[in-house]
Amino acid sequence: MQTRSSAPAPTLAAVAATASAALQTRLMYAAPVHKLSLLIVARAWPLVKRTYLFIDLILARRRKGELAVETGASAPRRLPDLPDEIWLAIKQFATSELVLAEQDRFVFGFHGGSDDGLWDELADPEGFDFIDRIGRARLDFGHLSDCHYCEFLMYEQRGMIRTFNHYSQEIVSMLSDHRLKIACYHLVGDKTFEHADVDTDLNGEALVALVDRTAQPGSSLLPLTIMFGAVATAEPDTITAQGAPLPAGADARFARLFELMPANSKTSHNKKQSTQGSEKWGDDKGPGWKVLEVARKA
After folding, report:
1. Which of 32, 124, 131, 196 has its CA 20 to 30 A from that of 291?
2. Which pTM does this prediction carry?
3. Structural domain range at position 183
């Protein structure tokens, strides 16, 4: 996360007062999130949500002693005796598989018909001799830049801004279920930015915030500048906010979202690497009080 000063972090009250005077500044409890990961999770969320509800129902019935297997059912009769830890592991595994499958579909949407045997290989990777060339292990975000065909479609025909905006409704709906919202669609590292840098940065981040009105009274909550149909702001500073009111379980909302993210949330490409985003995903990426400033097109 970018730090602009080595001086002690300002208090929440001081920042709120400053924000009141600065029309282009916002204060909120938020966390940066890898945009492509957020997009994939939003696409997978309808099935993931059903999986959550199904496992949660099983756990609720088990705790009440109401979970039973029908006579003659093919499932093991001792299924109701499985401990909660096993059911939670099943829930985590199923969720991970659903998200990875959606990542496959997303990347394949760019790869398209350039390799007709791709889906066959995904279904039966051991039956193919060219696993190192392509396959599920390469159907991650890095494939979008490793494959020239995908790279052309991603950068030249769609771009990150257009792609992210296309799924904005799915993202908003998924975040709403977590009692979160999009505060900024495209974070950049400076107060000015190049459109091409944002549009080609596969490692770019969005800012996700609490739905609740968590800013102190008097701080500015004015809408951010809209550019290209997307919100662009300077990368936020984290500030000290002792005694600031937060709803119960605020950090848990972000934790549940982060648990859904694909393991390989960053691409490995260098050819189109932008200097706008953070160098390492996971460094100081937790939720906190953030001060945002509107960025302008260079």
Report:
1. 196
2. 0.73
3. 12-297
